[in-house]
Amino acid sequence: MLFSIPGLAVCAVVLIVAYYSRGMLIVGLLASLAFGATSAMTLTSVGGSTPLIYTLFAALLVTAVTARRHIWFELGSVLGSIRPIWILASLMAYAIVGSWLFPRFFAGQTVVFVQAKTRGGVVEAALAPVSGNISQTGYFILGGLTAIALCTLLLHSNRIDQIRRGFFLWCGLHAGMGLIDFVGKNSGAGDLLAPIRTASYQILTGAIEAGFVRINGAFSEASSFAGASLACLAFSYTYWRKTKSHLAQWLAGILLFLTILSTSSTAYVGLTILCIPVAISMTTSLLRGKVEREEILIIAIMALGTVAVLGISLYNAGALDPIIRLINSTIINKANSASGEERAYWNVKSLQSFLDTSGLGIGFGSSRASSWPIAVLSQLGLFGSLMMATLVAVLARGVGREREWLDPETDAVVLSVRNAALASIVAISLSAGSADPGMIFFIAFAVVCAAKVRARRSSIAFERTGHQLLAHAA
After folding, report:
1. How far apart, in whole angstroms, are the C-alpha atoms of residue 460 and residue 89?
2. Per-residue pLDDT tens for 332-371?
3. Domain range holding 39?
4. Based on the structure, what is the number of domains in the chain?
5. Is residue 282 part of a domain?
6. Would residue 293 count as lying in a domain?
7. In-domain check, residue 154
8. For residue 71, is it within any domain?
């Protein structure tokens, strides 16, 4: 095991900030998600894997919860009141067994894509056990344990304020480092965040798309930065609309700016998908005649932007050519590019591996795809995909009818966190190669499940109190 001094320094700073934010475990974990290319160590025993710093904070959270005095009682309460936890636990067990069994049982019977050992990039090979079976499964299991640990904390004490501070710190750090990267590259200063990119990923910080410098923030590539930006944008926008928070409003504006300038296909397609529910909501408000001030502001900004674009095109017909080339490169002609064809080939072969294994899957971490649902289907098989779909459905449904028993602040935080996770799922569905849904999914899953149980308990307590008052009056 080899340690990274810059990575350890970043961990120390995050711990200090989280401590003074009055939530070292939860706030620290969320803040660490902003560092998407920072590792504190290299695991030489697992193929030179460099886990990101969020894994250290997640392990710290799980360890701290496990060491609680009444952990078995609290864990029993979680298992007894949150039924989707059983599905999560079953999926974790299935992932462990499948990652060991399927690459050996179906060895050589299908084609997979793995990281080359001698040179960078992904190569096509026959199915066989690889280090990804250990590392990718480890990330997934850590995420599941983090969800269970968070459920334990949130179910037995009201820590929604720590969740709110943690998400705002994550969004603020992500936006801040995105601005630093943008200013550094466009001012000629270069990659100012290079010292904290300590993970052994393929770092693509100097890429240019259609004449525009790609924005990476603290991540290794523009696509990963765009995916995190979409999640942060969804949280900030939702919280702003629910609470009228000026901080959330400014964050949403900055994140939208960075998402557009990331020059990533994931950003543009994902942003288009996320705009659909926003457009539906605004249209409904217009039809009802109950347009809010925030909606008027959005419509005004869109109108001004449209007028500005038309004015520029009329004044100088060629001024928008760079933007048109960017749109053609990242969206219209993306499928016909070498990268687009390669990723499409990965997805086709991943679906073929699902068929080659009779729907059982090739095992967690055995291959790489270019879309999260396809990665889930090929690696976890039909049975594992159904369990994963159930967890996504639980997250998408949210608190449901019980939300009326939540106070306004808790309702705003839970809804914002859920939307951030759904935006993250949209992003990874466009470009992610692993079946792991990511830490933000597990955190949001825990927040939604715990909030729903607490709301249900509040409704039951209210009904009991009402019955007692009626009985006393009688």
Report:
1. 28
2. 666 566 667 777 888 888 899 999 998 999 999 888 888 8
3. 2-264+338-473
4. 1
5. no
6. no
7. yes
8. yes
